[in-house]
Write a structure and sequence with these properties.
Two copies of one chain form a homodimer. Chain A contains twelve helices and nine strands. Chain A is of the alpha/beta class. Chain A has one domain: Metal-dependent hydrolases (TIM Barrel, Alpha-Beta Barrel). In chain A, the strands form two sheets. In chain A, strands 1, 2, 3, 4, 5 and 6 form a six-stranded parallel beta sheet that branches. A three-stranded parallel beta sheet of chain A has the order 7-8-9.
């Protein structure tokens, strides 16, 4: 009687980093996922990102019966209506723009609608949560924030250091996102976020995507109840309209990619990122979330935990839908709407 | 009584290669030009072209009162209605796609709607009119033609060698263009086109943009009457629906750029292209066409020469309008229209 109407539920994942193939797309369909933010790049420069986007276009063509590209909120609704999965392209680094402010509009026009300001290292724009000192947003970084605001490319701060995050929130004329991280007072990790940062995000009307990446929770041992408790406490802090999911799902990836993810071209030495020497490989995921087909488990879990149906819909995707719809508009389009 | 209704005339230039600034845009307005194909690159690779397109986006922003970007026929009509100049971005080389077939859709999505298969040298795709031997379209070249057909990026063959041109016309499922060249039996030049090539273009329903570039006519001494005679004889050969203008206007460019245009990075020795040792610098233009403000001179000249008003409208821009409108559609869009 109190069950979720899955046909009406919109499920949106704020970040997935997978080696996509048709089988994985079918898993998304099993999970009745409406839309994902797919990570296109980590360390890739402008030219490399261009090639990756080209391959994505081809992938869209070859799997047009299963997925559609998403550049607007309407595209997400279209995906839902057609029973397809919408895919928002984004990168976890500002490396695609090299040192050229003009490339933000260029990549935005190619459908790259989300860009994280830094990945795990200091870059031209700011600093990461793993650097010893975070000097905050650079001069170029301030221009990047303003230009992303202008064209409607969503700012993602998930891997940024605290000062860079606070500076970016202050500089941004528009709401920003932390697409995949958790409150660090619930799960301590350099990658998770402090009260100060999340308070600033809340005031900015920004969105927090809660993360299932095992290193950012309690590993594979994390129970569904514990995850629901994470959601509940985050909602208490942020408000139910500003909490969503960003699983950081990593599937179909080998150790070679793990090295690329962690070491890029910046070191010859092993760097473990959110992992550790004792836990050097890809992490095992909780039993209740082994892949995209398991999204309904989370929805059912939240309902069983006591969330209202309305709040479950909001956290599972309704919030991202509203947030993406606004965030992907250029400032010119926003003005026309007013 | 037989004067042209300039308010109703659409003027479209099939190629201009200028160092654009606001003054030049005002000259286009003086000439009541509706749309130009602006050359974005000659030798630039993918990364360099990306940067150039980024700068063009900024130029569009900064001069939004004078110009708008054109990706469709509707955009051209919008430019006319708003009293602005529409700008189609294109390149005179396939260098933007490097060796990657997927970059055609990428650059098409960025608004690069016209691409010449080769500039003055042999490349991965085919050969130029200046090479000793033209081996025709390469294996990659055939794929490039098919992919340009698919996405709706117009194939330009102006600088290609005869065999490459004939091969491309045969391979193409859609009409192609020679945006800026003249019949070589009227003005002999390696850059101008033979009867065989233009006959193939005619059969392909392709478009020929007649060129005012002094080295491709009789220099600055060419009279308006002679140019009108060129138009008349070309129309006799091609039919009035397949002849238009592609002035190849080169303004505001210095000797440094001339060296880049002719020598790129492929030689240390001077290469004169369509020029010669005796005439090594930028050519002087005929008195009746010193710049974009002089387009009405050509229209008036054609009318005085005996062309009907309808045919003047066709050659001045009506033909490009129809041709661009169809050519810029993807094959998917064409099918929807049928």
């Amino acid at each position: 009687m109190n069950s979720l109407a899955k046909k009406d539920m919109i499920i949106i994942d704020g970040l997935e980093l997978c080696n996509w193939d048709r089988n994985l797309l079918l898993e998304l369909h099993k999970g009745e996922v409406t839309c994902i933010h797919a990570c296109v790049g980590l360390w890739e420069n402008a030219r490399e990102t261009l090639g990756k986007i080209g391959r994505w276009y081809r992938f869209f063509e070859e799997n047009a019966d299963l997925i559609i590209p998403v550049r607007t909120g309407e595209d997400i609704l279209k995906a839902k209506a057609e029973g397809k999965v919408g895919v928002v392209l984004g990168t976890q680094n500002a490396s695609p723009i090299d040192d050229d402010i003009a490339l933000i509009e260029v990549f935005n026009n190619l459908g790259l609608k989300i860009m994280q300001l830094t990945y795990n290292n200091q870059n031209l724009i700011g600093s990461s949560c793993y650097e010893k000192t975070d000097t905050g947003l650079s001069r170029f970084g301030k221009n990047v924030v303003a230009e992303m605001n202008r064209v409607g490319m969503l700012i993602d701060l998930s891997h940024c250091g605290d000062q860079t995050t606070l500076d970016a929130i202050e500089a941004s004329r528009r709401p920003v996102s932390i697409t995949h991280a958790n409150p660090d007072w619930i799960y301590p990790s350099r990658r998770n976020k402090s009260r100060e940062v999340l308070h600033a995000l809340k005031d900015n009307r920004g969105m927090l995507g809660l993360c299932v990446y095992p290193f950012l929770i309690n590993g594979a041992a994390t129970t569904m109840t514990e995850f629901c408790e994470l959601v509940a406490r985050s909602v208490d802090f942020m408000g139910v309209e500003q909490v969503a999911l960003g699983t950081d799902l990593t599937l179909n990836l080998d150790d070679e990619f793990l090295k690329w993810m962690r070491m890029g071209r910046w070191t010859f030495e092993m760097d473990y990122g959110a992992g550790s020497k004792d836990n050097p490989s890809w992490p095992a995921w909780p039993a209740w979330f082994q892949g995209p087909a398991d999204f309904p488990n989370i929805a059912d879990g939240l309902l069983a935990h006591g969330f209202s149906k309305q709040d479950v819909y909001a956290v599972m995707g309704g919030n991202w839908l509203n947030f993406f719809t606004e965030s992907f508009k250029s400032e010119k389009e926003l003005k026309v709407c007013v």
